[in-house]
Amino acid sequence: MSDEQVRLGELRDEIDQIDQKIMELISARAACAQEVAHVKMTANPGQDVFFYRPEREAQVLRRIKEQNPGPLSGEEMARLFREIMSACLALEKPMHIAFLGPIGTFTQAAALKHFGHSVVSVPLPAIDAVFREVESGAAHYGVVPVENSTEGMINHTLDMFMSSPLKICGEVQLRIHHHLLVSPKHGDQEITRIYSHQQSFAQCRQWLDTHRYGIERVTVSSNAEAARRAAEEPGTAAIAGDMAAELYGLQKLANSIEDRPDNTTRFLIIGREEVPASGHDKSSILVSMRNKPGALYQLLEPFHRHGLSLTRIETRPSPSGTWAYVFYIDFEGHMEDEQVRKVLAEVDEEAVELKRLGSYPIGVL
Ligand SMILES: C=C(O[C@@H]1C=C(C(=O)O)C=C[C@H]1O)C(=O)O
């Protein structure tokens, strides 16, 4: 045996021993999580106990990122722990997570990034269907897109909150890479039509105008649907992401064709429960103001005075009348915080209506 083979043999023995220890430790952790569930059930007999605690999971992941010694990155280590927690929780009862489908969409990728792979993910055809599935209790949580860094807000999601009783329980961001995809079955056939979702066409507009100018663009209901069509119809291509490409066995003609390299979509987790403070939280509200001079100033001034940082403000037409508006506001802090309570009490006095959509941990992954 060469020196190299001897050394590799030693290292592999060492890895086997470490794996054995990791397995024992993960098993001990899983038993602990089971015990937590047992304690919760014993303390609340006969009640519908929530095992999943988003604020606790955010704290665990934050600590892992902060204390990670390397050489793996903090993000990578947190992703591994995300899956361990997901598997531990599923020992009790796998959660049902409704998402804007079909399978293979970026929303499904966001759902799995946030909850890990040990959940049952349920595709639904529209944003309002995701809300209904969670409202009825058929799903524990739902995942819907809310904004894209290139294209702006997803208005349908914002408008759903005007009438829905659901709370925002979390957020997750996903870097969005689009590819130009074709089926290997169809060989080198000339492409005469490209399918995609309207959002993806918008995020790749410059690339398409430069590299595929004049080819027909056909808007369909999702990227996954675009991929499905490209897999079936010769002479067509799809713009979609990796999940859809894999699902339908498509090949990349061009990789990462989004116009902006930081193209990111933010998704919201919606549920029926309010989330306690995790120590690093964000809150969302909807406010309608009387239509008078200085109304917006009056609305925002208390945030400034109490030093609360706004992360987003968006205006939507009010369902109650022409030229009346509702403001959708995200800010840092939790509704349990003293400062936030004071600000919201002031806003409540001036507003026609203030709806608290929820406080939730700032996305960790
Ligand atoms: C173990 C608990 O329950 C669940 C499992 C967690 C875990 O595996 O770390 C964390 C939070 C909860 O989703 C707990 O409440 O601490």
UniProtKB/TrEMBL annotation:
For this record, the Gene Ontology CC terms, alphabetical, are:
cytoplasm
Q: What is its main location?
A: cytoplasm
Q: What is this protein called?
A: Bifunctional chorismate mutase/prephenate dehydratase
Assigned keywords, A-Z: Amino-acid biosynthesis, Aromatic amino acid biosynthesis, Coiled coil, Cytoplasm, Isomerase, Lyase, Multifunctional enzyme, Phenylalanine biosynthesis
Q: Cellular location of this protein?
A: Cytoplasm
Q: Which Pfam families match?
A: ACT, CM_2, PDT
What PANTHER family does this protein's entry cite? Answer: PREPHENATE DEHYDRATASE P PROTEIN, PREPHENATE DEHYDRATASE-RELATED
The protein's site described by Essential for prephenate dehydratase activity is found at 265
